[in-house]
Design goal:
Strand order of the largest sheet: 6-7-8-9-4-3-10
Largest sheet: 7 strands, mixed
Order of helices and strands: EEEHEEEEEEE
CATH class: Mainly Beta
Strand content: 35-45%
Distance between the termini: 35 Å
Number of domains: 1
Amino acid sequence: MFVTGRCHCEAITYEAEIDPEAVGICHCTDCQRLTGSPFRVTAITAADAIRLTAGQPKRYRKVGDNGRGRLQLFCPECGAPLFTTGEGPDAATWGIRWGSIDQRASLTPKGQIWCRSAVDWLPAIGGLPASDGDA
């Protein structure tokens, strides 16, 4: 599936070819801290399937709970998370952050990882009062 995407301020744009079956949720504590939410959704694709069309992301390295180094790529202007990748053989695949994808409404997660870190109140959100706009 062909997708396009951008950071929040639109300084960085990209296009990519992804498999919609390779979209997943991560509940790890790093993803919780990075998003300020209970999980992160990511589309996994080959590194060479992504093409930057404007701008250049900034990156930093973080060692995860599994001991492997992860590179986090984000917009240096607005801070929006865009991509993640590993090192060595793990650099062949990249994760595209779901929130940056223009066609995200068409991408449903197909699996979950790091569920031992999932917040225990997550199943209850369907029962909370809801609004279609601002409260």
